[in-house]
């Protein structure tokens, strides 16, 4: 991905959410996007032109629009009607975004519309965040990458963020995923962590 003067940027048309521009590129604000925050904290995170991405929890399309600037296609799943309207408006200007009105806890309902993907990105802030990611592993190519943006306070407000994080790691590894790297998203997002997982060529156990 491209950086200018220490800022992560993307090479698409601006005006999606009044984002700043720098030398003709869109500045990707890490305080508004957890994927941008992860990329700022871990420069090895990358998006490439041949990637197909399944994005769960697309919201109003802010981060989706930046991802679409880099990759081949983004299948963007959102359930709530109001942000879905914004997502539809964003997808009209970026033809490689496929907006899907769907419940991420029921991937069977939109499975016919999604091809196998290289990157599975989960940003649905529900109590069973790990479970939602695991349900979508069948969409991920062998050797692909899954990223879970864990909002610990949405999982269990009674536990510490560290305890929720540890339990989530255990659940993902028990499901057969291989945790490649993980980090907290401070100072950009409080009590949020990113967990990057790999799917081995042999597939899930």
Describe this structure in words.
The chain is globular, with a radius of gyration of 16 Å. The protein has a seven-stranded mixed beta sheet with strand order 7-6-5-8-9-11-10, sandwiched between helices. A four-stranded antiparallel beta sheet has the order 1-2-4-3. It is 27% helix and 29% strand. The longest helix is centred in the last third of the chain and has 14 residues. The mean pLDDT is 92. It has 205 residues and is α/β, with parallel strands linked by helices. It has a single domain, classed as Rossmann fold. The protein starts with a strand and ends in a 7-residue tail after the last strand. Belongs to the methyltransferase superfamily. Fibrillarin family. Interacts with nop5. Component of box C/D small ribonucleoprotein (sRNP) particles that contain rpl7ae, FlpA and nop5, plus a guide RNA. This is Fibrillarin-like rRNA/tRNA 2'-O-methyltransferase. One of its GO terms (molecular function) is RNA binding. Its EC number is 2.1.1.-.
Low-confidence stretches: none
Subunit organisation of the chains: single chain
Provide the number of structural domains.
1
Spatially, the strands of the biggest sheet line up as: 7-6-5-8-9-11-10
Radius of gyration: 16 Å
Largest sheet: 7 strands, mixed
Number of helices: 6
Short description:
By secondary structure, the protein is α/β, with parallel strands linked by helices.
């Amino acid at each position: 991905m491209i950086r200018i003067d220490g800022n992560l940027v993307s090479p698409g048309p601006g005006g999606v959410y009044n984002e700043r521009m720098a030398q003709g590129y869109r500045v990707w604000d890490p305080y508004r996007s957890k994927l941008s925050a992860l990329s700022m904290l871990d420069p090895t995170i990358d998006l490439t032109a041949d990637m197909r991405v399944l994005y769960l929890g697309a919201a109003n399309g802010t981060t989706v629009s930046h991802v679409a600037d880099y990759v081949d296609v983004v299948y963007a799943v959102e359930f709530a009607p109001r942000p879905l309207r914004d997502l539809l408006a964003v997808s009209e200007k970026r033809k490689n975004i496929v907006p899907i009105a769907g419940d991420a806890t029921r991937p069977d309902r939109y499975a016919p519309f999604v091809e196998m993907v290289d990157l599975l990105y989960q940003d649905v802030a529900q109590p069973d965040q790990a479970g939602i990611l695991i349900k979508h592993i069948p969409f991920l190519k062998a050797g692909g990458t899954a990223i879970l943006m864990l909002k610990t306070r949405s999982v269990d407000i009674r536990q510490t963020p560290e305890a929720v994080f540890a339990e989530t790691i255990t659940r993902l590894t028990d499901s057969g995923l291989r945790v490649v790297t993980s980090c907290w998203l401070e100072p950009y997002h409080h009590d949020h962590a990113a967990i990057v997982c790999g799917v081995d060529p042999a597939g899930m156990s």
